[in-house]
Amino acid sequence: MTERPTNDDVWLVIPVYNEGEVIRDVLVHASKTFPNIVCVDDGSSDDSVAQIRSAAADVARTQTGSIHLVRHPVNLGQGAAIQTGVEYARSRPGAQYFVTFDADGQHRVDDVVAMIDRLRTEPVDIIVGTRFADGRSESVPLLRRIVLRTVVFLSPRTRRLGLSDAHNGLRAFNKTVADQLDLLMAGMSHASEFVALIDHHHWRVAEQPVTILYTDYSRAKGQSLINGVNIVADGLLHGRMRR
Questions:
Q1: Using an 8 Å Cβ cutoff, are 197 and 181 in contact?
Q2: Which of 111, 150, 220, 240 has its CA 20 to 30 A from that of 140?
Q3: Which residues contact 138 (CB under 8 A, 6 or more apart)?
Q4: Cα torsion at 167, 140, 171, 243 (round to 10°)?
Q5: Among residues 47, 39, 51, which one has the least CA distance to residue 14?
Q6: What are the residues facing 128 on neighbouring strands?
Q7: How far apart are CA 222 and CA 141, in angstroms?
Q8: Which residues contact 239 (CB under 8 A, 6 or more apart)?
Q9: Please, what is the average pLDDT of the chain?
Q10: Distance of alpha carbon 40 from its chain centroid, rounded?
């Protein structure tokens, strides 16, 4: 029987902004499967940093992994935090696979395992999670579904690449993508920029059906329809979403 990989070559990149209520549990749970994690605190004003350090100490004591902390002195936005985290992770010895993973407890480790398995065995460079497969969209709040569908409708490039949920924050990619990644959009519009970079660099892309765990906590952080449209407008303004 073939042993499963230890995932020592995988890095979770977790942008953190005022997630002190949940981040510790997210880190302790994820580290049991993925021992290398870098958190980028994006200027949090709550106790996120203290919770990250507490989780790091616990994980170090149990020898289940290593949690690293990088800090932005001010809030720069999720895109900037992801770029900082990827730059840190890709510099680490042995790093081959990278995952953008939310700090609010919405993402499932089991979905990441499936995505990494595909990266190891299939001719793809990046896998993007999708909530719109296998009937899973029913779990997505109605307003969120409207936002996500609107973004896809307004982005010809997203449709051309065959992506149904490009603003899903759960992505897994190889070192080719990590080495070339250069996100310029600091805020939430980085997701549209990710799509543009996939197209520009001709990265081989696939989707993975994933389940997003919507809690009262994560729902409170959801985006409105207007914000979703603004994301697309921002991408058009920066010239990263030209056909």
A1: yes
A2: 240
A3: none
A4: -30
A5: 39
A6: 171, 207
A7: 10
A8: none
A9: 85
A10: 12
Q: Residue 55 and residue 67: Cα distance in Å, rounded?
A: 8
Mean pLDDT over 168-175 rounds to 95
d(CA 1, CA 117) in angstroms, rounded, equals: 16
The radius of gyration of the chain's CA atoms, rounded to the nearest angstrom, is 17
Q: Are 134 and 209 in contact (CB under 8 A)?
A: yes
pTM for this model (two decimals)? 0.85
Write out the two tokens for 131. 């909530």
Would you state the structure tokens that stand for residue 26, as one six-digit string? 């997210």
In 190-209, which positions are buried (b, 16+ CB within 10 angstroms) versus exposed (e)?
bbbbbbbbbbeeebebbbbe
**Measured in whole angstroms, how far is the alpha carbon of residue 234 from the centre of its chain?**
20
> 124: pLDDT confidence band, cut at 50, 70 and 90?
very high
SS (H, E, C) the chain: CCCCCCCCCEEEEEEECCCCCCHHHHHHHHHCCCCEEEEEEECCCCCHHHHHHHHHHHHHHHCCCEEEEEEECCCCCHHHHHHHHHHHHHCCCCCCEEEECCCCCCCCHHHHHHHHHHHHHCCCCEEEEECCCCCHHHHCCHHHHHHHHHHHHCCHHHHHCCCCCCCCCCEEEEHHHHHHCCCCCCCCCHHHHHHHHHHHHCCCEEEEECCCCCCHHHHCCCCCHHHHHHHHHHHHHCCCCCC
The Cα 20–Cα 18 span in angstroms is 6
Instruction: Report the relative pairing of strands 205-209 and 10-16 from DSSP bridges.
Output: unpaired
Q: Which two tokens stand for residue 51?
A: 């919770």
Average pLDDT of 121-139? 81
Token pair, residue 197, equals 């970079």
**Amino acid found at 119:** L
CA atoms within 13 A on the CB side of 128: 22
